[in-house]
Structures are given as structure tokens and as C-alpha cells.
Design brief:
By secondary structure, this protein is α+β, with helices and mostly antiparallel strands. The chain is built from four helices and ten strands; from the N terminus they run E-H-E-E-E-E-H-E-E-H-H-E-E-E.
């Protein structure tokens, strides 16, 4: 089943709250998008946020053209499913450190002593919070056809 809307559904948020990697693409005029894997968080307000360095290429591009998209897919071994969010972005100077710490716990586990030095290094870096405000949300979830009941 495939659908398109302008906001995230409860089912989308449940899927996006899993520790899955997203693939972020930013607009750059005539250049083709070059997706990058990222950690992300879907918020209760229906936005997607991530952190990055303030002088990163993605931020420089977004300052020229604030459009971005993120695609998140189910891992191999699960039924095919994905959610794509496209919209304008804002670059926020607050909350990046807290977001980084939450995402480290989500992706590495809440107690990852072997990654403590990695986290300390990341937290020491200058960071901004990038927020995608959905304008278009597309989704797909594989449904098999049942001869008795139609789509399952």
C-alpha cells in the first residue's frame, strides 16, 4: 500500500521511532541529490530533526535552498516498508547537544560504555539542529493479496 499526505500518521511515528537510519537529501539546484545516512528523531509535533556541524556541506546548501527530504526504510529481513518526508528546513542553534545524546542512546543503546569516548567527542563539537517541516509524506508498506479477504 502506498499513500501520500502532508503530515506523519501515528503509524509513521511508530515506525520512525525505531533506531533506523534515514537517508537525507538536500536540494542543490541542477545538481542531483546525494543522500547521506543520518541519525534522526521524529518529534511529537510531526517534524524530523537531526544534528550536524554548522559549517557542513548540507547546512551550506540548505542556507541557499531550504528544501530537504529523508527516506527511512525497514531493514532487510522485514516486510518492505518506507516513509519519505519532504519539506522546508530550519536550522536551530539550540537543542543539538541534547538531541545528540538522545540519539546516541537510541542507536548505540542506553548503556554503551565502549562508546563513551565517541559520544564525548561528538558532544564537544559545535552542532546545530536541523528540522524538516513536512510538506509531503509518502509511504509504502508491502501488503500481500489474500484470495479470501483482498489486501492484508
Amino acid at each position: 500500500m502506498s499513500a501520500e499526505a502532508s503530515s506523519l500518521t501515528t503509524e509513521d511515528l511508530e515506525f520512525l521511532n525505531r533506531p533506523l537510519h534515514g537517508f537525507l537529501s538536500v536540494a542543490e539546484g541542477p545538481l542531483p541529490p546525494q543522500p547521506r545516512p543520518v541519525w534522526f528523531e521524529a518529534t511529537g509535533e510531526g517534524t524530523i530533526q537531526l544534528f550536524t556541524e554548522p559549517d557542513s556541506l548540507k547546512i551550506r546548501r540548505l542556507r541557499r535552498d531550504p528544501r530537504a527530504s529523508i527516506v527511512v526504510t525497514a531493514p532487510v529481513g522485514e516486510r518492505e516498508r518506507w516513509v519519505s518526508v519532504t519539506g522546508r528546513t530550519t536550522v536551530e542553534s539550540d537543542g543539538a547537544g541534547e538531541l545528540c545524546a538522545r540519539l546516541a542512546a537510541r542507536y548505540w543503546g542506553p548503556d554503551a560504555p565502549e562508546r563513551a569516548d565517541d559520544l564525548a567527542e561528538i558532544l564537544a563539537m559545535d552542532k546545530v539542529r536541523l528540522v524538516i517541516h513536512p510538506e509531503t509524506v509518502s509511504r509504502y508498506m508491502y501488503s500481500k493479496v489474500s484470495p479470501d479477504a483482498g489486501l492484508v
